[in-house]
UniProtKB/TrEMBL annotation:
One Pfam family cited in the UniProt record for this chain: AAA
All copies of domain AAA+ ATPase, residue ranges: 320-466
UniProt-listed InterPro entries: AAA+_ATPase, ATPase_AAA_core, Lon_Prtase, P-loop_NTPase
Domain of life, source organism: Bacteria
GO biological process: chaperone-mediated protein complex assembly; mitochondrion organization; protein quality control for misfolded or incompletely synthesized proteins
Protein name (Swiss-Prot/TrEMBL): AAA family ATPase
Any one Gene Ontology molecular-function term assigned to this protein's record: ATP hydrolysis activity
Length: 534
């Protein structure tokens, strides 16, 4: 007979107690997974699954129960009321910490006994941790942390045969189990001390209590342990390339994939698992004087447009732009300007022709369909691994407005609003996506043809019609572009000379840039013919 099953009453009592504890927990996990019961906090900490096996579903159910117990008549309870209400919709990871703080503030100012038993603060910290957020203050007190850690280490040692369970699981036996498992200088005590010391260090670091004193820029923490002591940058040294990468602005776009346990969810998870909770780069703002100069070289008639757009970049660390609608007659260079702006900002770009679009496929299709796909911006972020792609909606006023299969204007509304864009729910992921940093540029010949709700979400910027005064600058820019398109070197794009300029001026009096480009193509062809003759 094995030592673990020697038939003694004490051993049988321990096994019965353990089995009796596990069976209800398993049953509760199954019930929680099916959405019948909301597990208590102590059951979650012992391994019970979340309600419907989903953090958001568990939080919504828990917040609804807490709201039923909350006395909202007191003004001091209003912050918690609003915070819990947020958890019942589509909360962001930080919303859980906001709710925890609101609860802790309320309990200090005006304790509500009906909420105390629900342990709202600790549970919200648990939700935040499951979403990858490290709180700046502990969700579990140091005393409770020590108690949990002690019990965990003791049972770990017992499971590995390094300590003995009591013969009888009585009050005295249970009380003596932990001290005996964590005797002086034993492995259990060493493990416990290390765990709690690390916890204290992490909490102090998150509060900034161990921040370095003011000094020159340091190497990133992930690099520093692998550097020789003499390689550490001295005070006052210029930033290194690694420093610049560490300080580059980033944003987390994807935090979860909904219903990931289903076969369809597994396929989507495979597409996005490398991007979950991964900070994706944002583009730093370039030198605005250089950017303006480059744009005006090619679009000398669009100085007002350049200044209106570039003012959004002033004072920012990274490229951020309110949705812009460029309005002007056909051929004034709206789409070309938008594409060139994206290129000069060094951002991934896609032009989406809206003419004739009569459905909402732009916003993605559900994974249940064979043709299921994420929304176009979601796909761009995934493909380019960049949080701030440029989406150019070309001829947006020509999109169909019928709602039979959904409509593009309706699909765009939530994406263009900053508040809703932060947690826009992609039907393919079945989870929120942070589209706050997507750059939206749209073009239209006539803004009055747009639905009012969509037009109001854009900043309308008129694009002037180019005139004869802009002929030389426009012609030289087009000449350079045509030379590059042919695979020639840029320096071969010689500016138009006097005779060529006079010939162009005789045929083009202003208006469409498409017409002018065809004329510049004729000038370039004439140059080729002259070179061939000579």
């Amino acid at each position: 007979m094995s030592h673990a099953d020697d038939g003694t009453p004490g051993r049988r009592a321990v096994r019965a107690s353990t089995d009796g504890c596990t069976a209800p927990l398993d049953a509760l996990s199954r019930a929680a997974a099916k959405g019948r019961h909301l597990p208590m906090l102590h059951n979650l900490l012992r391994g019970c699954s979340l309600f419907k096996e989903d953090v958001q579903a568990d939080a919504a159910q828990f917040a609804a129960k807490a709201l039923d117990r909350l006395d909202g008549n007191e003004a001091s309870a209003h912050p918690l009321l609003f915070a819990l209400s947020e958890l019942t919709h589509v909360p962001g990871p930080e919303d859980y910490l906001i709710a925890a703080k609101a609860y802790e503030d309320l309990q200090r100012e005006s304790p509500q006994a009906r909420l105390t038993a629900m342990e709202v603060g600790v549970r919200c910290h648990l939700y935040a941790a499951l979403n990858g957020v490290h709180a700046s203050s502990p969700g579990i007190s140091q005393e409770d942390a020590a108690s949990y850690a002690t019990a965990a280490v003791a049972w770990l040692l017992a499971a590995n045969g390094q300590t003995m369970l009591p013969e009888r699981w009585s009050r005295e036996g249970a009380a003596g189990f932990l001290p005996s498992a964590l005797g002086p200088d034993g492995p259990g005590e060493q493990m416990l001390v290390k765990m709690l010391t690390n916890r204290e260090a992490l909490l102090r670091q998150s509060r900034g209590q161990e921040a370095d004193p003011p000094r020159g820029r340091r190497a990133p923490s992930m690099i520093r342990p692998f550097m020789q002591e003499e390689d550490e940058p001295e005070d006052g040294e210029p930033p290194t390339e690694a420093d610049a990468e560490a300080d580059a602005p980033t944003a987390v776009v994807f935090t979860e994939v909904g219903s990931a346990q289903t076969p369809a969810g597994q396929r989507v998870l495979l597409e996005f698992k490398d991007l979950l909770n991964l900070p994706l780069p944002l583009e730093p703002v370039p030198d605005l004087a250089d950017l303006r100069k480059a744009l005006l070289y090619e679009f000398p008639h669009a100085a007002v447009v350049c200044d209106a757009i570039l003012q959004d970049f002033v004072g920012r660390s990274h490229v951020a732009l309110r949705p812009v609608l460029l309005v002007g007659p056909p051929g004034c260079g709206k789409t070309t300007f938008a594409m060139r702006l994206a290129e000069l900002l060094d951002l991934p770009m896609e032009v989406y022709g809206c003419g004739g679009v009569s459905d909402s496929a732009f916003a993605g299709t559900a994974r249940q369909w064979n043709t299921g796909n994420p929304a176009l911006p979601t796909g761009m972020i995934r493909s380019h691994r960049h949080a701030s792609p440029v989406v150019i909606l070309d001829a947006v006023e020509k999109a169909g407005t019928s709602r039979t299969n959904g409509s593009l204007p309706d699909a765009l509304l939530a994406m263009l609003e900053k508040r809703t864009a932060r947690c826009w729910r992609d039907p393919h992921l079945e989870a929120p996506v942070n589209m706050e940093h997507v750059v939206w540029l749209a073009t239209a010949n006539d803004a009055s043809e747009l639905p009012t709700a969509l037009r109001d979400r854009f900043r309308l910027i008129p694009v002037p019609v180019p005139s004869l005064n802009h002929l030389e600058g426009l012609s030289n820019g087009m000449m350079r572009d045509l030379v590059v398109t042919r695979g020639w070197r840029r320096e071969w794009a010689l500016p138009v000379d006097g005779a060529e300029l006079r010939a162009l001026a005789a045929m083009w009096k202003g208006g469409s840039l498409r017409t002018l480009r065809r004329m510049v193509e004729v000038v370039l062809a004439a140059r080729d013919l002259a070179d061939a003759v000579h």
